[in-house]
Amino acid sequence: MSAVITTHALTKTFKTHTAVDALDLHVPQGLVYGFLGPNGSGKSTTMKMLLGLTQPTSGDIEVLGQPLTRASRTELLPSIGSLIEAPPGYGHLTGRENMRIVQDMLDLSTAQIDHALATVRLTEQQHKLVRNYSLGMKQRLGIAMALARDPALLILDEPTNGLDPAGIEEIRTLLIDLAGRGITIMVSSHLLDEIDKMASVLGILSSGKMLFQGTRDQLFEHSVPDLVIETPDPQAAHAQGINATLVPEGIRLSGIDKDQTAKVVYQLAVAGVPIHEVRRVPQSLEDVFMDLTGRGGPL
After folding, report:
1. pLDDT tens digits for 158-170?
2. SS3 category, 14
3. Beta bridge partners of 184
4. Looking at domain 3-221, what is its CATH homologous superfamily?
5. How far are the Cα atoms of 16, 93, 113, 192 from residue 132, in angstroms, in the given order?
6. Residue 122, H or E segment
């Protein structure tokens, strides 16, 4: 699949630390790319470099098939929409008046503004003062501003931050719909379940380094869920010298593969320990994420 964003050894070093460390990104075209990482992992710094707002210390960036340089940035920006940090907008103006500022700055048509407002479902609220908007409406207004120029790429930093469940679902539905229209969306978030529901490809960052990049299925292939062996005599099972934790239903083992599982079950059976069930503990994206970022090593 062709890439809309690629980076090679992208690095940003500040005086006291390296925020982004030799990052290789690959954001495929026409889908939602979920950019995950703990606070301070380098997500926002990366996004600012992709937009030319922060200069890399070293490394290369290619956006929409072109190297991103000081010279090419002006040419590329009309094809990129972004929402970084707090949603924009003047509270004393209406949504429409804020959009008119964007229209004049970018020399856009009224039809483009109307379409952007309709896309984020703000047509009926466009004449309300922005200070009277809910946070979700302000986020949608920010996305409308980003969409007004009909971009091929949207870069959104924490667009659901601070929203209630209804607002989060609204933004999620909108982003999935935009990707369905062929717009590539790179979105960062600390809400792992939300990213899990919308993103086709994941990138996981920790301490400036890429720990994983790929599909959800590929991520889960690298993770070994805990194993629970149900037995009415967990003490007898534990007495076999197996590295396990006692749980109400039996014993729980971490990090063992299929072959190791077979050996443990055989050991217990030979020892006469009754086994009622052997099962893996279901994992969520948050489980895998915490395991991965806790280890701090790449997959």
Report:
1. 888 777 888 888 8
2. coil
3. 153
4. P-loop containing nucleotide triphosphate hydrolases (3.40.50.300)
5. 41, 10, 21, 29
6. none
